[in-house]
Every structure is written in structure tokens, then in C-alpha cells.
Predict the structure.
Amino acid sequence: MRRLIGIIVAGIALSLLAMALERAVPAGAAGSTQTGVGKYSAPVWFPLRSSGGNDIVVGCTYHSTDTQVCNGYHPWWALDLGAQVGSPVYAAGAGQVYAVATGQTGCSATANWVMVDHKGSYSTYYHLDTVKVAKGDWVDQTTQLGTVGETGLANRGCWPHLHYEKDSTATASTQSSAIDPGGLQACYGNVLKTFPDAWGLSTWEGIPWGTRKLHSDGTTCDGADPASFAGHIVQAATDTASPKTSWFVTPDLKRELIPDTNAYTCVKALPSPGPDSLGSATLTQLPDQTGQWVACGDTMPANRTLRRDMYMKSGDGRYTLWLQHDGNLVLYGPTGRALWATYKYATAFVIFQSDGNLVGYSATGAPTWWSGTDGKGGLYFAVQSDGNLVIYSASKALWNSKTSGLT
């Protein structure tokens, strides 16, 4: 492994020239494959398939931060995905094969590769051992383009991997055309995950060589155990909007809307895994609580909801309002002492209603506790950094817990 790392590092200086040579677009052969003729889609699927263990290794990405292998390489958007020679490589989305380069074997000086036109962007697959498509073929995420190899790596150290790029144009200049590949989806059994989000990362940029591994069972998955998504952010797999609609899955397996960017950032920072892309069968098993939005942070505007095992924190993080598993809504101070509680153990959720009333409800919908502020113009409920719980109108406090200054 030390010898392999040395070879890779020594050869990085030659990589820009070698990649430009690989990128020259040949005429290619006439097409034959006819999967999804005339259809295009964005390249959003992970291009490798490898069921079982996490045996796909993320190598150098964009500006990888490790100093032993990548040391800032690549200086453009790209993903090196290590896998065994012969591992299948699939198209990341639907489109037409724009160009291919073939004829190389083993650890050769130039690479076999495929470029797919997705009508708005391109995806490119380098270092292939074999190529199974031709120029003009129509492909989609179920089409095998070729297999992982080492072609084009003779001057840089032979390591079997797929060099994957998303490109804005078909230009031969890798640095100017490569763009952020964004989230790439992969099935883990019946669960659809999006990487790198599934690791709690927002970008592929800077991932150190060899620190992340994964596998993919393909592109057909649904019917996952809904309990596995408790505490996660989820989205519909069919949602193509930007941004996508997101929900938080509560501990009792309900979906509550994450209404805006600020709420999403707050929920993500809890931390909450995801977003997980779910099929309709799984979403159906996580009932959408229409009109109830997830509460996060230190304030609860209208329609925000706390469910059992969920909490809010003051802005300085010292005070926690927790709807406990037993149904009791409790305010805890910085020493861990309970400062205030409802003692209503049948409570399943608490909501700040649009009428300005903070109300606890049982699982059957019966009220268990309320603040009595309905109709008084209440705008939001707050967990303050002085330890007080307060409901405010536009001009004054309507209700408070009288816990200011308690610890």
C-alpha cells in the first residue's frame, strides 16, 4: 500500500496532461442500444453497483484534504471511486452516448471512456476496462456502460477505479467543463440513500482519500422499514423541484413539513440524517401531518409541533423544553433540574395553534393542556435564554412560565 501511495503521489503532476489527452473526442461507432430512446434525465444515480459489503472506496474528489495521497487533487470537480477490476459501471441517468474511446487493455497509457449527453449536462466515465456501448446509443440508469479498469493510468500509478465527472459541456478541457456532481442516489436494499448527504456531508469537496466507503444495490428500491427513518429528513424520490419538499420524521413515525430554509438548517444541525429519498410505498407508511410543521430552535411560530422525544432549546443552549416519552412537557435548566412541567402524561404532541394558543393533545386528539391565549393575537412561543417560556403578540407577552433566572 505504501508503494501504491508513492506511485499515485509521484504521478499526480502528470495527471492534467494525461486527462486532456484522454478527453479528445473520437468519432465513435454507430449506436445499437435502444434503452429509453429519446429520453433524458439528470445524472443523479451512483454509477457503480456492488452489493454486499461497503467495497466501493471514495478516492480523490475535488480538493481532497489528505496529504498522503491526494493533497488537494483533483483541482476540478471529479470523483475517483475505487472498485475491483470488472465491477459494472452504469449510466448515472438517461441520455444518449455522445462519445466513446476504446481499444486499451490493462494499465495502459490512455484510457477507455464513455461520455453521455443528458441534455443540459454530460456525465463521463474514465479508466474503463471494457466498454459495452457505442456512440449514439440511448441509455438510462439501468444500462451498463462498461466495467471498472485501470486504463489510462500507466503514468500515474495503477489503481482500479472509476473516474466520474459531471460536465456542463462536451469540451475537451476537463477543468473548465467539470461541475459539482451533486447528490448521487443508491439503493441500500430497499432504502434509497443520497450521497454524500447520507454521511452527514453537504459536499463531495475535500473528502480525504479512503475515508468513505459504500455499496449500491441498484436503482430499484422501495418498501423500506419506516421505523428506520425516525429522526431523519426525508424527501420524495419523484420530487424534481429545487429545492425539494422536505419532512422530518418524528419519533412516532409521522411526517412533519420542514417549511423553509432556516428550519431545514436547524433540523439538519440537530443532527438529523438525510435527506433520504423515499418511494411512495414508504412515504405512505409515514403519515403526513397536514398543517403541522416541525418545531426547531428556540421559537415556535404558528402550526409548529413538538412530539414525544422531541425538544426545543434556548438560543444559548442552556435551557431545554422537552416533550418526554412519558408525555410530560418539561423545562430543564442548565444544571439539569426541572424548572417547569405540565404533568399531563397523556400528551402525544404540543402545537402552537394559529389562534395563538399553545395546546397539548393526546393520541386521540383530546386536549390535555393549554396556555389559554387563544384569540389574543399570539404570534409565537419562545424558549428564552433567561429561562422563561413566553408567548408573544406583536406588542406584548401574553403568557409566561415565571421561570426567568431559575437554574
Summary: The two ends are 56 Å apart (CA to CA). The chain has two domains: 2-181, 295-407.
